[in-house]
Model the fold of this input.
Amino acid sequence: MDFKSFHKEHPVWADIIQAALLSILLVAVIMLLLRWFTRHGKEYEVPDMCGKSFAEVEQFQHEGNRHHFKFLVNDSVFVPDVDGGTVMSQDPAPGQLVKRGRKIYLSISTLNPPQVEMPNLIDLSLRQAENLLKTNDLRLGQVVYKPSRYVNAVLEQRYKGRIIRQGTRLPYNSEITLVVGKESVQEDEMTDWP
Done:
């Protein structure tokens, strides 16, 4: 019995068998094309960019990038004592196997330190002022004593020699000079600090 006679005797079953065979053929062709298109089995190791400057990453991307990886910065973080523009982490991680042309997302250290607000230290004790500076990511620099009836109280707060007001934005870890009152022996001994 050939297919034509089967088709005449059982047209519904013949159409179902024909559709099933066509579907199997179509799925096989799609799977082969996907395997070719996605380069199945062709994976490359992700290079380690951690600790490198962004300039080095760009140079690698243009000169030594034979697998056409695309390096994109998606985050920046502030890390004290690390040069700005240094790669801190990457995704996917170094050593993982990925396809050619994969995007690799980098997290780099910021070029400029973040800005912090200057707190009001006036009338606080030296110890309280020092703790508040630390809490606000600032450092105590020089302590200048000035005769005053308010012993050990902060009289002025200065940044780079200038009086600095509360709320002023300063670079992270800036050094603040405090003018602190000390007990005066005689009235004529009092002098103004520049």
Remarks:
- The longest helix spans residues 11-37.
- The helical segments are 3-9, 11-37, 54-63, 126-135.
- The chain has four helices and eleven strands.
